[in-house]
Amino acid sequence: MRFARLILYALFAATAACAGIKPAPGAEDSVAIVGATVIHPERDGAKASEPNTTIVISGRRIVAVGPSSTVAVPPKGTVIDARGKWVIPGLVDGHVHFFQSGNLYTRPDVVDFTRSVPYAKEVARNQSRLPATFKVWLASGVTSVVDIGGPFWNFEMRDTAERTSEAPRVAVAGPLISMIADPKLDLGDPPIIEIASTEAARDLVRRELARKPDYIKVWFIHRAGEDLAAQEAIVRAAGDEAHRAGVALAVHATELIVAKAALRAGADYLVHSVMDVPVDEEFIALAKKNRVLYCPTLFVIPGYQYALSNTWQPTAAEMRLADPQIVAAMGDLARIPSDLIPPTVARRIAEPGAIVPPEVAMRNLRSVANADITIVMGTDAGNIGTLHGPSVFREMTLMQQAGIPPLHVLRAATINGAQAMRREKEIGTIAPGRLADLVVLDADPATSVDNASRVYRVIKDGRVYDPDELIRSIR
């Protein structure tokens, strides 16, 4: 038996050596996923699926991927029997906000429930609840997220995530450079700061660059009668300052004329769909010139509509994988005294109406996809009705309903998401040398992205997590 183990370990070491990677001493910390169908979203057609495959992980990295008949399993370490299961790269959500929770109280600038829950109490809850929020991301198979703007404490949040094993990787932006003020969100460390000149934009960017952001973010709000050219100059100034430091520029721009101005100003990442009118040839040309990343965020508006009409209901994935505290709070409208409910919300409850998918945004997503512009899956999680973690499955389902094939939706949520993280050489694909961020599923996500919610195990940095145990550990 000892001789056989030595032979197996020798084979494993040889496999790892061929990949240019050294296995951990004794391979006690190895993980082998045996017999799975591996989905490679970056590939096309039949090459995207590899049945009966074994993946070997040593330490934080993948060291071997190949047919189970030829890839040796280390004699020690963890073995996951994945026969009848599927493996994909760890999912990436390219648009989240940790300063928001997803509950009714998290955006008093949109709907004011502060007489029920003061905003300072909500923000303190979000800060203290970070360990739980990190866990719901991992439990949902999301091993990386881009927090695309928040207070300066976002940088401490990123540091906390880096020190926490049960947390996703986090890329981060600081306070949003904005065309308008948002005083209801200002508790002394505002997530949104009004900027009225190009020099003020450069000054704020320099303050953020001192904290080593992954992005500079502009909240490009343009209203009728305002000087679009002057606003574009502010965005360009912010982008120029960021680019000089090697940092990418992300822009919130939801109208076509605003999105085109953002692209002319140097935007690298459009973090929402164009939602008002169909995109045109000029937009496509600008997006291609910038090699822009395009994040559609299809569910976030319906999320508000469901929540504020008191018709929001958790999906099966949310019941299993979301923060139980937030799921419970989504029913608060039925418990809040009527005199504390804002009149606009009261009208929504009385006359909820039909909630339809964002049709213009979905058509624009098809147009962008047909133009071979890189699409990144992102939810805008933290906004009212869009919960951290399992909202990715609502978003991916809407992307599929928009006409994006399941494999391409997975591509948007893996390798393209890795580009949004600025870590495409380390994550997003399943190959020797890559960081071991993987999801083991009970059903085939290449036939329907709904199956991506069937999470059996999650592996991040080579550590194996049971999603149900992660949720049970939340207090």
Task: Write structural notes for this entry.
The structure is a single chain. The chain is an alpha/beta fold and 475 residues long. It folds into 2 domains: 132 residues, Urease, subunit C, domain 1; 282 residues, TIM Barrel (Alpha-Beta Barrel), CATH 3.20.20. Strands 1, 2, 3, 4, 5, 16, 17 and 18 form an 8-stranded mixed sheet that branches. A 7-stranded parallel sheet has the order 10-9-11-12-13-14-15, with helices on both faces. Strands 6-7-8 form a 3-stranded parallel sheet. Strand 11, helix 6 and strand 12 form a beta-alpha-beta unit. Helix 5 packs parallel to helix 6 and helix 7 packs parallel to helix 8. The radius of gyration is 23 Å and the shape is globular.
Key traits:
475 residues, alpha/beta, Urease, subunit C, domain 1, TIM Barrel, 2 domains, eight-stranded mixed β-sheet, seven-stranded parallel β-sheet, 18 strands, 18% strand, disordered N terminus
The end-to-end distance, rounded to whole angstroms, is 45 Å
CATH superfamily membership of the largest domain: Metal-dependent hydrolases
Strand content: 15-25%
Q: Please report the first level of CATH classification, the CATH class of the largest domain.
A: Alpha Beta
Low-confidence stretches: 1-27
Count the domains.
Answer: 2
Give a brief outline of the structure.
With 475 residues, the protein is α/β, with parallel strands linked by helices. It is built from 17 helices and 18 strands.
